[in-house]
Design goal:
- The protein has 284 residues and is an alpha/beta fold.
- The chain folds into 2 domains: 2-79 and 191-283, Rossmann fold, CATH 3.40.50.150; 85-188, Putative methyltransferase TM0872, insert domain (DNA polymerase, domain 1).
- The protein has 12 helices and 7 strands.
- The chain has helices at residues 10-14, 30-39, 56-62, 79-83, 109-115, 118-129, 134-147, 153-163, 177-188, 194-203, 218-232, 264-269; strands at 2-4, 23-27, 46-50, 68-74, 205-215, 252-254, 277-283.
- It has a 7-stranded mixed β-sheet, sandwiched between helices.
- Strand 2, helix 2 (30-39) and strand 3 form a beta-alpha-beta unit.
- The chain is globular and about 65 Å long.
- Residues 3-8 have low confidence and may be disordered.
């Protein structure tokens, strides 16, 4: 069994493993690994690995593991990271602009906000945050950073709010939510490698093994869905042919034709689960 994502679901999974079963916890965040070690201190059948799920094949090779029975990929930022205000993920309160899941990497939110061009900022706000006022916000950021470096989450939130038309500030979500999401995705390179990560994860499964992926926004979900469809394979022959001649190959089957959403009870218990979607693929 391979688990991505530190302490979040690790206890529920490891307690259901047999004594011979093995859980491998992979996380970019060293603090999350420490939290998982504390939570699972009574279990000996766990391996903790500080790394990126994009490197799943190399990680398993390093651990001398060929194939695994199951993989859970829990994408995005964790509640622990959001609640730790000094990490700079939250648009509430004040903290240094950081947003790095792996604090050993060089690129952080401050560098993006203060060095990316206006066009680059506008692009990531629109693509990763689906922010329709992306150009206005990017222009305002460039204007303000000429006066002084933008170094805190509070400063960035104020710039975003001052960039928006008055009527738009009454929308359902916080005015800075989309921009903060976009910057976080860019800092941690969460979307570009995801399709390949899904395909590589499927390749690491034993026959009958399952890949379960939890996404929290449409860009992640689209990448996962497309990777699953391509892995399942589909005949490309003209419909009037009596038999298949394209020789398409299938790596398995999609178990969830539609994503699984959290129940009303789950959403009531954890409001952050409202946007979660679970998709499952079974290896052939």
């Amino acid at each position: 069994m391979v688990l991505y994502g530190g302490a979040g679901h690790s206890y529920e999974i490891v307690k259901h493993l047999s004594k011979e079963g093995l859980l491998i916890g992979i996380d970019r965040d060293e603090e999350a690994i420490l939290a998982a070690k504390e939570k699972l201190k009574d279990f000996e059948n766990v391996i903790y690995y500080h790394g990126n799920h994009d490197d799943i094949k190399n990680i398993l090779e390093e651990l001398n593991i060929d194939k695994v029975d199951g993989i859970l990929l829990d994408l995005g930022v964790s509640s622990y990271q959001l609640d730790e205000r000094n990490r700079g993920f939250s648009y509430l309160g004040e903290a240094d602009l950081d947003m790095r899941m792996d604090r050993n990497q060089d690129l952080d939110a401050k560098k993006i906000v203060n060095t990316y061009s206006e066009d680059e900022l506008s692009r990531i706000f629109f693509e990763y945050g689906e922010e329709k006022f992306s150009k206005k916000i990017a222009r305002k950021i460039v204007e303000e950073r000429k006066k002084k470096e933008i170094s805190t989450t509070k400063e960035l939130v104020e710039i975003i709010e001052n960039s928006l038309p008055g009527w738009s500030k009454n929308r359902d979500s916080h005015p800075a939510k989309r921009v903060f999401q976009a910057i976080r995705i860019e800092v941690n390179n969460e979307i570009k490698p995801l399709y390949d990560t899904v395909r590589n994860s499927i390749d690491c499964l034993r026959q009958g093994g399952r890949l379960c992926i939890i996404t929290f926004h449409s860009l992640e979900d689209r990448a996962v869905k497309n990777a699953y469809i391509d892995a399942e394979g589909r005949c490309t022959c003209p419909p009037d042919l009596p038999y298949c001649i394209c020789n398409y190959k299938s790596e398995g089957k999609i178990i969830t034709k539609k994503p699984i959403y959290p129940t009303d009870e789950e959403q009531a218990e954890n409001s952050r689960s409202k946007s979660a979607k679970l998709r499952i693929f079974e290896k052939k």
